[in-house]
TrEMBL record:
PROSITE patterns: GUANYLATE_KINASE_1 (PS00856), GUANYLATE_KINASE_2 (PS50052). Keywords: ATP-binding, Coiled coil, Cytoplasm, Kinase, Nucleotide-binding, Transferase. Belongs to the guanylate kinase family. The gene is gmk. Residues 144-171 form a coiled coil. This is Guanylate kinase. It catalyses: GMP + ATP = GDP + ADP.
Amino acid sequence: MGAAARPPAGTARPGVFVITGPSGVGKGTLIRLLRERVPELALSVSATTRQARPGETQGEHYHFLSDEEFARHVAAGDFVEWAEYSGRRYGTLREELERHTSGGRPVVLEIELQGARQVRETLPDAVQIFIRPPTEDALRDRLIGRGTDDAEQIERRLEVAQDELAAAGEFQHVVVNDRLDEAVDALAAIVRGTLGP
Ligand SMILES: Nc1nc2c(ncn2[C@@H]2O[C@H](COP(=O)(O)OP(=O)(O)O)[C@@H](O)[C@H]2O)c(=O)[nH]1
Ligand SMILES: Nc1ncnc2c1ncn2[C@@H]1O[C@H](COP(=O)(O)OP(=O)(O)O)[C@@H](O)[C@H]1O
């Protein structure tokens, strides 16, 4: 964006950063480290109908909802975006996003491809970042190594990953998560480049 396209000083909208990439590529890990580097960056906590994994807590990792609760929010138009992934629903509640942006905080959304495409339409100023694995074998190794999904879930996630990886070219920024520290550096540079020093 050129300087002429910027809103006048004092009215700049906080940044919305969308981070997408296949399951197991390291999005959650990268976002945790990114937020240590850029502490003002808030995390949008998504809603989901999937079961909490051991160690995940309500309202911190996700807003865990029943199918009925999620459907009610869909019908009420409460979601900025939502999608079905591996048989479960995931979405960004408008209220959750605005809780941060209305206070002037930049915010990061960790969402899958269909949701990122919806945000591209509804929030065209959002910065879109795609995370790639160095190889598909590395992705499989990370999903196995994480130990949170059974073999069937891992295969489903790897199948979805094929379509997701094919869509990397749609994204403004692509970061390869090979060495973790280098990937965090690249993400921090994108965020700092948008927000300013
Ligand atoms: N569209 C959308 N996708 C989401 C949202 N929250 C999480 N996801 C994505 O849903 C997929 C599955 O998430 P999860 O079950 O937590 O698995 P994990 O990302 O492999 O740990 C991942 O690609 C997430 O990025 C959301 O609010 N909206
Ligand atoms: N650069 C990396 N090199 C090796 N392992 C990684 C790297 N980044 C993340 N991991 C590991 O890969 C697994 C999946 O990471 P996670 O952040 O849960 O991915 P996602 O949120 O994209 O599903 C975790 O066990 C994590 O520790």
